[in-house]
Amino acid sequence: MQFRRNNRRSPSVDIVPLVDIMTFLIVFFILFTSFKTTPTGLQLNLPKAVTAARYPSSQIVVTIDRTGRIYFNGSRTTIPELRESIRARLSRDAEQPVVIRADRQVLYGDIVAVMDAARSVGASRIALAAERRELR
């Protein structure tokens, strides 16, 4: 008795298109996730941070209270006056950091306005003050 031999090939999966698609996806994600970075120059410190650092005493301190009022050297000021005050201090030492001490409830826009004022007169080192907290 002779059996009939099956001449069919066993099914196979062609993986070349799959490899092409996977390579494309890897390149796509590498390229587009590298562009999702924080804007340059914005160093944000939350009101409480484990990594809070001390700045030297020769710093320019700008305070913003919870209602958005701006203070420089303990006296209330406006954005145009703040620009002139910071410019005068930077003329003596251009490397002085500008430290913004903002209440936790201050609007983000108020902080950005102060940062813009400082940058517009040449401040290159701007930081947000934070209270040091212990790591839990």
Describe the protein's topology.
Layout: H1 16-34, E1 48-49, E2 60-64, E3 70-72, E4 75-77, H2 79-92, E5 98-102, H3 108-120, E6 126-128, E7 131-132
Parallel strand pairs: 1-7, 2-5, 5-6
Antiparallel strand pairs: 2-3, 3-4
Topology, number of strands: 7
Give me the secondary-structure category. Answer: alpha/beta
**Count of alpha and pi helical runs:** 3
User: What's the CATH class label of the domain at 48-132?
Assistant: Alpha Beta
Give, in order, the helices and strands.
HEEEEHEHEE
Strand order of the largest sheet: 4-3-2-5-6
Cα-to-Cα separation, first versus last residue: 81 Å
Mean pLDDT over the full residue set: 79
User: Do you know the CATH topology of the domain at 48-132?
Assistant: Nucleotidyltransferase, domain 5
What Rg is obtained from the alpha carbons, in whole angstroms?
29 Å
Strand content: 15-25%
State the share of residues found in helices, binned by percent. 25-40%
Largest sheet: 5 strands, mixed
Rough outline: rod-shaped
Point out poorly predicted stretches: 36-46
Name of the CATH architecture of the domain at 48-132: 2-Layer Sandwich
